[in-house]
Specification:
elongated, 10 strands, 5-stranded antiparallel β-sheet, single chain, alpha+beta
Length: about 170
Amino acid sequence: MLIFSLIAASIVAIFVSVANAYQKAKAITFVKDNADLTLSKMAKNVRMGKIISGDGSWQNYLIVQRNKDQVLVCYKFTDDHTLSVFNNLNKDTPTDCLSGDSGRVLLDLGNTQMTFGSNSGFYARMTDSQVRGSAEINLEINSNTEQEMSADKIEVQTTVSSRDYGWLEMSQ
């Protein structure tokens, strides 16, 4: 009976461990897929617009003017688990998004036991004409659980160049 109890306890412990690892792997895959989608949307806005906030340093925000409709869009890490977008900013005060936290959430890690790492941010540069520029977007996502896995850190990054399609000149 003792041997049977030890075998049964071992089987249950293995089953619980495998189930926990599966849930964590599933959560990591979900977050990675959402991060990839978010990064694609951001890259498209940068590619089709003009970078406003590029001073050649790492920042927790990126402001882009979409060329076609001349709307200012701000991407900002509002805390250690939320990446938000602020639309329709005032062109005279484009940094309004820096003081507020009421943007639309693009990526929320609040219920995932994950947070944005210290290497998450935006590095933007503008050309002399300030029509073209480039931005590096880096999302580092760390797991906060005690159970360690090989994929405890997710890093998603891209470098994208803005392009001048002449929409600013055509609309004036």
